[in-house]
Amino acid sequence: MKSLINRLTEQFKVSLEKQTKSDLCFIRVNKDDAEQLIRHCRDHESYTHLSFLTAIDRIEDNKFTLTYLLHNYQSHQSLGVHVELDRENPVMHSLHRLWGQMATYQRELKEIYGIEFPGSPRLNDEFFLEGWDQIPPMRKEFSTVEFCEERFPIREGRQSTDAKQTMKVEIYPGRGE
Amino acid sequence: MPSISQQPHKFDPPLEPDLTSGKYVKIWHGPQHPGITGNMSLELTICGDEVAHCKTHVGYLHRGFEKLMERRTFIQNFPVVCRIAVPEPAFNEYLYAAAIEEIAEIEVPELAQWLRVLNLELMRLASYLMWLGGSSGSFGMTTVYQWTVTHRDYILDLFEEMTGARIYHMYITPGGVRAKLPEGFKGRVLKVMQGVEKLLYEVEKVVFNNHVFKLRSQGLGIISKDMIDEYGIVGPNQRACGFERDLRKDQPYLVYDQLDFEVVTETESDAYTRAWVRYQEMHQSVSMIRQVLDKMPEGGSFHADLPNVLHWNVPAGETYVKAECTRGEYGYYMVTDGSEYLQRIHIRGPSYTHAVSVMEKLAVGINIADVAGLMVSLHTYPPEIER
Amino acid sequence: MKNEDNTFANNGLLPEEMDLFCNARPVPYEPYSIEVVEKFFNWMRANSLWIMAFGTGCGAIELNPLMTSRFDANRYGIQVRPTPRQSSVFVIGGYSSVKTLKRIIRSYEQMQGPKFVLALGICTINGGMYWDSYNTIKRLDHYIPVDVYITGCMPRPEALLSGFFELKRKIKAGECDGANRYVKNLDWYKDNQKRVIKKWDMPDYNW
User: Fold this and answer.
1) Which residues pair with B341 in a beta bridge?
2) Which one of A1, A8, B36, C16 is most buried, counting C-beta atoms within 10 A?
3) Residue B130: inside a domain, yes or no?
């Protein structure tokens, strides 16, 4: 994987984030270079399989991180490409012409995170949700418990206990941490 | 940034037929339809009885697992994950446990690894039996469905003895497994395996040599070699196209490197071949279960020592673990930030591509009566698409 | 939502679709005036329970063993029918997301009476595992009437069978008035339904 990173660093502005195991490493690239880098990896480094595309909500840094995970079937190595987006106005170039399933992933991210991919086909069609009238649900500031209390009445008599307390007081009394 | 050219591209969605021309009819195949796998729907535009355009609609089973798991502690998540893919919960349990073990650097005892393989292979066999029933059922052979679902039930009985539950076992915990094998369990597994093998030979006679099944499934839904990587097709769908790729062989996890098996490949890549590949993998599973029972160590610990799971801060990290389930690469992408909660988890189900983009492409041009057969031949499970 | 002549306004429909759908209100079922005949009817109803083939959630997985040769529910007159028009029992298989709830309501209203609802799984009772999920409803009986609940996650096929027997007992005793409750309290049910289903693009009652 080292040599791949070296080759990529020569051509693109990438930085190695971390190598978690021998066959998986994550690199960071800037938003405008992402398409070229991913296309290069697909066409010349035989990272031909897109495992998934997803987003991470880093609310503390005010950023979304997109993760494109590519896989090389010859060397059995995976390469994660991180792209950071601004959280206020998340727009990413649409890569739907690189893989056939990319448009589906982008449609999902638009719905559950509100990330825009201009030009992606059927982007605004509903995917998981129907008639959703709140902020996109996977964003960290969306509280699913508060939403449930407001929207869905629940049956009385539901009890919940604090697991830590129950363990400490009822199941193992007198035992320390 | 190069501008995206305006010419039509092979990945652009096909144009929708003009409904006002009077040549086309739009019908919905699902969600309330006996010929659909699970709860999803296809919006078909047909011309005569030929499908002219197909759109997949998913989300009927969306529960927001990824959100729910972000607000539960690591050990609270463990009973939740198995509910993600209903017919095949064990793979979720294994992958969730494996992801945590990798980030927290927990060593799993050897006996636990063997027990996990036993659990996963029994699960694979149960899931394939269910699929075999659905597959032959959708081509009109409902008797086979009766046989296979019953034999799946015998495997569920084994699960009940092994784990305490029929469907949602919650057996593979982070750090190991929950229990040892009961007394005399091996003998009962071998007995069920004998029954399954006998059933499989009968199924071969009745289904795979059946002229009607051959006529309907041969040449149906051919996946070309180019499509495999372009659409991210994995698992038996890919192996039926001649690619020798199996995660159990390529990147062995658990103790699969100590088991003796060959990757099954075929080249025709139509519905019949995909079914045939799965059929052979069922035999393979039976043989693997026998090997596991043979080679499994007798004693030893089945669970690693964990910190107090109620105050468990898994260290910060990021990983992607995957396993070969019946449909192909099933993966968990986990990001932790050192707190008691997950930062993000993403579940990559193989049906995600198979049921949406691949199905939309393959359905065009086939007969409407074969849509159900095509869906089953891709082996899609809706709950893992929408999670 | 009501017009002056006590028909539905069907506000969810487009203007050009208005004529395509019926806007009449359903009426409750009146039992036959002779008690013995009504009892005979109930006995017949209880012995031909036809399930609609709509696997709304994960509970559908245990219907497969139930309907096949091991547990063989066919011997009790229970069988699966492909369309709502032919079926009399709606088995809600566990949690239902908001998107599915819309289809459940639509299919339930299209079923012809007498019709019964069997809710299986803890998630139909109070949300169960998904009590904090933003996309699943917590109490099914706020949206459609439920005759029998079967709890558990998953309920075993034996539990399903005993649920069916309970349903049979209730039908024979003439206690299964779910469909009538639905018709009599239709406005309450419709209010609840429209509170969660924001995209209401179907008629108010699906005949």
Assistant:
1) B73
2) B36
3) yes
ipTM: 0.87
* pLDDT, average across residues B214-224: 87
Q: Which residues pair with C150 in a beta bridge?
A: C120
pLDDT in tens, C69-115: 888 888 888 888 888 888 999 988 888 888 889 989 988 998 987 88
Smallest Cβ distance to B38: which of C55, C82, C95? C55
Q: What's the domain count of chain B?
A: 1
> Which among B34, B60, B167 is the nearest to C61, CB-wise?
B167
Q: Are B70 and B337 in contact (CB under 8 A)?
A: no
Chain C residues with CB inside 8 Å of B33's CB? Answer: 53, 82
CATH code assigned at C181: 3.40.50.12280
Contacts A120 to B, Cβ<8 Å: none
Tell me, what CATH number does B156's domain have? 1.10.645.10
Position B386 in a domain: no
Domains in chain A (CATH in brackets) are 2-171 (3.30.460.80)
Q: Is the pLDDT of residue B1 over 60?
A: no
Structure-derived torsion over alpha carbons of residues C7, C10, C11, C13, reported in degrees to the nearest 10: -160
Instruction: Give the closest-approach CA distance of C33 to chain B in angstroms.
Output: 36
The answer to whether the CB of A130 falls within 8 A of the CB of C115 is no
Residue B6 — pLDDT band, cuts 50, 70, 90?
Answer: low
Q: What is the pLDDT of residues B171-191, one digit of tens each?
A: 888 888 888 888 888 899 999
* Mean of the per-residue pLDDT values of chain A: 84
Least CB–CB distance from C68: residue in B79, B80, B145: B145
Within a domain: C116: yes
